[in-house]
Design brief:
- Strands 13, 14, 15, 20, 25, 26, 33, 36 and 37 form a 9-stranded mixed β-sheet that branches.
- The chain is built from 16 helices and 37 strands.
- It starts with a strand and ends in a 12-residue tail after the last strand.
- α1 (38-49) packs across α7 (198-228), α4 (138-151) crosses α5 (168-180) and α12 crosses α13.
- With 694 residues, the protein is α+β, with helices and mostly antiparallel strands.
Length: 694
């Protein structure tokens, strides 16, 4: 038996999905994450799901790079810049910030990842047209390499002016550094991000250098341990932020491309799940132990962005457009006093994997969202989370009473309901940030709820926000891990060149695209992909002449058609910003190519059709806080593994399974589709009697 195995590291659990390539059978497992060395949990889970089987494909979603950036625990990094441009990184965009930062009297920018005293100037200059204005003397390159050695840094970022037009000086510095510091990795901006905008190119290159040693060491340990565990297949991949996977070696070199590795896998899984269920417009809602990640899927494809901010640091690499808030099962709630007033605060800090929520009985003392669910009965004492952790409801009640209820003068149940209400508002704001605030109508979207805690909150969020329905996949707690198995290998290439679109010669554009495609195709062929398994996608970054930002516009295969490209750009600009400048010239800024290496598709398993009433799946009932204001109501309890295609029932109800619990509110109805998805929708007023359980 050969297996395809995915391991997704989360803040509380590391999730595993193993698929038998011959039968399509899916096995899942969850093991506690090991923050000190995440590879320990990966190997432990592999031994559980693939103890006596050969692994032919391994894919991994990692938080190592993300955590290093969030916690400021990356490598000590030196920065080399063109002489006279030392202040670019410190000055940044010359703005204070946007959003809440505008009104924050105590706003403070994040410290730079490469400190000013470890920033060196290089006597060289390349012009905007790519011509060398001031050559770099080899002796000067050697002298700078010696200075870097004296700094005692662990990594080096090189970002020279206009090196994306001519990278010879950056390569000279890399060669000089490798002679005196052979063990220190060097990140070149011409390789990491060869495009315009000096600050963002520099910031992204520095972030890559900052993360590269940490991620490289981790992936090196993981590779050794995979070998020891018998996983020797060459198809060993790491998830990238762009929604594709890459080899362990390339991931170590392009560390900045893995910053939202785990959340990206969940979004790709939702694309596949939505396609099977006939839903093309989705809001993905991934609520785990420490955070909540939401993203938008339009027309069956996730939306992407070429620039974002992570932990206050600018990063400009292609990635799925994922919005994250600190709201998870382990998010801690506190009663705070401001003057003479007490208020409830939820987050942003989390109990994490250790000690975890109070109900886990592992040493936690601060009440969390999981503890609130235990108090309200939406999670019960007899539910073993992940098949391992039984809840101590008494301890959870005591923590909520001591830390929240008494300081705020509330009952324990009201305090727990208040905790859930606050976190729901936070997550609702995250959903609105990527939908209604961008001009989308939520009534047209399906909310796909996954992660260990997502299905607990999805029904109420959908009702409050007006989403069409909720879809809960068959294995919500490990959906991100499933996404690792359906993700293709992907490499993104970009090159900047400024041209007016109406003056762009088709031959010039074709030459730029072909150069990128040749490099991208060579990478995939080196990784074993046959020509028929390679797909290339083209796009242009466009702007109205004089604008300070661009929109990425996909380009259809075939000859370049400037009129069609202009029309597509105008339409997207009007959709996003409410207007289009039809009388203004359009400028091409950058050419983009995404090279896709198709992996063998993974077909989603269908569930058997119902051969009896849904009562066969009903395992009891209990009181749970599913009332309009969190008050207890009597709920039917269903076992997910017993539900079949065609079954249906009305709320209030709870559906339990190994990796998650799903809540259904009064006035809502559940239908089970052919793939075992739970589809939750609102009952039409006055039609409850027409929707019997079946």
């Amino acid at each position: 038996m050969t297996l395809r195995v995915a391991a997704d590291t989360g803040g509380t659990f590391t999730d595993f999905v193993a698929v038998d390539e011959e039968t399509g059978r899916i096995d899942i497992a969850k093991v506690p994450s090991t923050p000190g060395d995440p590879s320990e949990a990966v190997v432990a889970g592999l031994r559980e799901v693939a103890a006596s089987s050969a692994v032919s494909f391994f894919s991994h979603g990692t938080t190592v790079g993300t955590n290093a950036l969030l916690e400021g625990k990356g490598a000590r990094t030196a920065l080399l810049v063109t002489e006279g441009f030392r202040g670019v990184y410190e000055v940044r965009e010359q703005t204070r910030g946007y959003g809440h930062a505008i009104f924050d009297f105590f706003f403070r920018r994040q410290d730079p990842l490469a400190r000013p005293r470890e920033t060196l100037e290089v006597p060289e200059r390349v012009g905007a047209d790519g011509a060398v204005v001031r050559p770099l003397d080899p002796a000067a390159a050697s002298r700078i390499a010696q200075q870097v050695r004296d700094l005692g840094v662990e990594s080096v970022a090189v970002c020279l002016l206009f090196s994306f037009r001519d990278d010879r000086h950056e390569r000279m510095l890399r060669d000089a550094l490798s002679r005196v510091l052979p063990e220190v990795p060097v990140s070149l901006s011409s390789a990491v991000l060869p495009q315009v905008r000096e600050y963002h190119r520099l910031a992204t290159t520095v972030a890559n250098a900052y993360l590269r040693p940490t991620l490289g060491r981790y992936l090196g340990r993981l590779e050794s341990r995979l070998g020891e565990a018998g996983v020797r297949t060459p198809r060993r991949y790491v998830m990238q932020s762009n929604g594709g996977v890459t080899t362990l070696g390339r991931a170590a070199e392009r560390a900045v491309a893995t910053i939202v590795s785990g959340p990206a896998a969940g979004v790709i899984a939702c694309e596949t799940i939505g396609r099977a269920a006939g839903r093309a417009d989705l809001v993905t809602f991934d609520m785990g132990g420490t955070s909540c990640d939401v993203a938008l899927v339009r027309g069956g494809r996730a939306t992407t962005t070429a620039q974002t901010k992570i932990a206050g640091h600018d990063v400009a690499v292609p990635m799925l457009d994922i919005h994250t808030v600190s709201a998870g099962g382990g998010t801690i709630a506190r009663a705070e006093r401001i003057g003479g007033t007490a208020r409830l605060r939820v987050g942003p800090d989390s109990a994490g994997a250790r000690p975890g929520p109070v109900a886990y009985g592992a040493g936690g003392t601060q009440p969390t969202i999981t503890d609130a669910h235990a108090v309200l009965g939406t999670l019960s004492a007899d539910a073993a989370l992940g098949g391992r952790v039984s809840l101590d409801v008494r301890a959870a009640r005591e923590a909520v009473r001591r830390e929240i209820a008494e300081p705020l003068g509330l009952t324990i149940a009201a305090a727990a309901a208040g905790m859930l209400r606050v976190v729901d508002v936070q997550m609702g704001e995250a959903i609105k940030a990527i939908t209604t605030r961008r001009g989308f109508d939520l009534r047209e979207f399906t909310l796909v709820a996954f992660g260990g805690a997502g299905p607990l909150h999805a029904a109420r969020l959908a009702r409050e926000l007006g989403l069409r329905e909720v879809l809960v996949p068959p294995h919500p707690g490990v959906t991100s891990a499933l996404g690792l198995l359906v993700s293709d290998v992907r490499h993104d290439h970009v090159r900047s060149r400024l041209d007016r679109l109406d003056e762009l010669a088709p031959r010039t554009a074709e030459s730029e695209f072909m150069g990128l495609e040749d490099a991208a195709t060579a990478e995939l062929r080196d990784e074993g992909f046959a020509p028929e398994s390679i797909q290339l996608r083209r796009a242009l970054d466009l702007r109205y002449l004089g604008q300070g930002y661009e929109l990425t516009t996909p380009i259809e295969p075939g000859p370049i058609d400037p009129r069609a490209i202009r029309a597509a750009f105008d339409a997207e600009h009007e959709r996003q910003f409410g207007h289009a400048a039809l009388d203004r010239a359009v400028e091409v800024v950058s050419y983009r190519v995404a090279a896709i290496g198709r992996v063998v598709p993974l077909a989603l398993a269908r569930v058997p059709a119902a051969d009896g009433p849904v009562e066969q799946a009903r395992v009891g009932e209990r009181e749970a806080g599913l009332g309009e204001h969190g008050e207890p109501v009597r709920c039917a309890v269903y076992e997910r593994s017993r539900l079949r295609a065609g079954h249906g029932f009305a709320g209030p109800a709870i559906v339990r399974q190994l990796d998650a619990t799903t809540c259904v509110l009064p006035g809502q109805r559940v239908e089970v589709d052919a793939f075992g998805d739970l589809l939750i929708s609102e009952l039409a007023v006055g039609r409850g009697a027409e929707s019997p359980d079946r």
